[in-house]
Amino acid sequence: MNWKGKNVLITGIGGFVGPYLGEGLLGNEVNVFGLIRKRADGIKTKNLTDKGIADDIKLIGGDLTDITSLANALDESDPDFIFHLAAQSFVPRSFENSLETQQINCIGTANLLDAVRIKDIDTKIVFAGSSEEYGLVISSSKHHEQAQKKHHSIFPEVKSIPEVPIKETNPLRPMSPYAVSKVYGDYLMRNYFHSYGMNNVVSRAFNHEGAGRGPMFVTSIIANQIMKLKFGEIDKISIGNVNAFRDWSHVKDIVNGYMLLAENGKSGEVYNQGSMRTNSVLSYILLGLKESGWLINKIETFNGEKIVKEPILEDNSKIFGINFEKTLIDKMILEGEIEYTPQDKGIYVHTDKGKIAVEFNYARFRPAEVPILFANTKKIQKLGAKIEYKLKYIIKDQLNYYLKKENRA
To answer: Helix 177-196 and helix 108-119: axis angle, to 10°?
Structure first.
């Protein structure tokens, strides 16, 4: 498709993904409009400024909870495509203020759809769903037993084990108010396709990272602390659940996927976006330390137990029927050889420059944790989607961002 001269409206243009998408579209000579919350000081968002595109995007002040402002934005942009990225997307915040999350993510999405429907605009909407919609995904028989004991009820019921890699047809078991809100938006998008013939396609993107990721997200927390450690600003790393596994992609790969779905995605359909690999939070920390100049020899828990030598030794063996890039410690956790609990209190990382403490912070543990996310992306691959960035390049990108002292604040 020739993007040149097309009008595109991006909701949430001031967030993490919006500027990357805006940059990609501008490179294709697109007329980019961005819906942004009105600010009393009129200051453009940092991520747009950092990208150097703040003056190239036509910003429209508006609010998802105000359908009138959305109607005005549609009049001004006359969009051929809408990328609906705007959301309250921080999972812990959704536990603290569920109503805010539902207002923005649920009512906001309903308002956008109704504004497009009522004004009868011929536009294609790409909805930013989330891998969090899948929630409690069962990876082994042992995990199934643990989940039944912890949650008492698993619905929809488990039909086969393992449930990873996660297909678009996997059951949805959202584990946070944020995840529930994304399920709402996901279904509403498809309902408006079936009910009103609207041209809507749903992306369920798995975790995507890069420079400028919000400071409250786990990969940014890790990269920020590693840089602070390197500059002597802190003397330890503080983190929550290191056993959690995530399918991390670079944001640029996900943005390319959004554009591909706008071009070729089938309306009314759902497409996973991810890297087809899964790695632990612990690996992200250890690989981040390696990329920052530490040579890692072994790790052990604070009590001197659970010792693992060469924990980041590269492993490409087959797990869940797929060969993918991971570390030795990833393999051990996935195969049930080792597990870290709050009772361990933390892990010492033995390096060529001394011992680094990784302390478990109970405040960073979620009330309901999603243990593993691992995407099956064969559906979007058939449209031509590719993953260009390996995990180490994602980590390097985030670490480089925190080289700037002002970003480490």
So the answer is: 20
Structural domain includes residue 259: no
Same domain, 281 and 187: no
**DSSP states of 288-325 as a string?**
HHHHTTPPEEEEEETTS-S-EESTT-EE--EETTEE--
- By CB neighbour count within 10 A (0-12 exposed, 13-18 middle, 19+ buried), where does 159 fall? exposed
Quote the CA–CA distance of 63 and 38 in Å, as a whole number. 8
Q: How far is CA 371 from the centre of its chain?
A: 15
Are residue 306 and residue 349 in the same domain, yes or no?
Answer: yes
Quote the CA–CA distance of 239 and 285 in Å, as a whole number.
Answer: 9
Residues 6+ apart with CB under 8 A from 351: 289, 294, 295, 296, 297
Beta strands in 23-123 (DSSP E): 31-36, 58-61, 81-84
Under DSSP, the state recorded for 405 is: G
Specify whether 11 is located in the same domain as 76.
yes
Of 90, 360, 94, nearest in space to 244 by CA:
360
Domain span at 294: 138-161+210-247+277-373+388-409
The CATH code of the domain that includes 127 is 3.40.50.720
The side-by-side arrangement of strands in the sheet containing 58-61 is 58-61, 31-36, 7-11, 81-84, 124-130, 199-205, 270-273
Supply the DSSP symbol for 266: P
Per-residue b or e along 45-66, where b marks 16 or more CB atoms closer than 10 Å to that residue's CB: bebbeebebbeebebbebbbee
**How many separate domains does the chain show?**
2
Q: Which residues sit opposite 355 in a β-bridge? A: 350
Give residue-wise pLDDT tens across range 385-394.
Answer: 999 999 999 9
Q: Both 281 and 327 in a single domain? A: yes
Inform me whether the pLDDT recorded for 42 exceeds 70: no
pTM exceeds 0.90 = yes
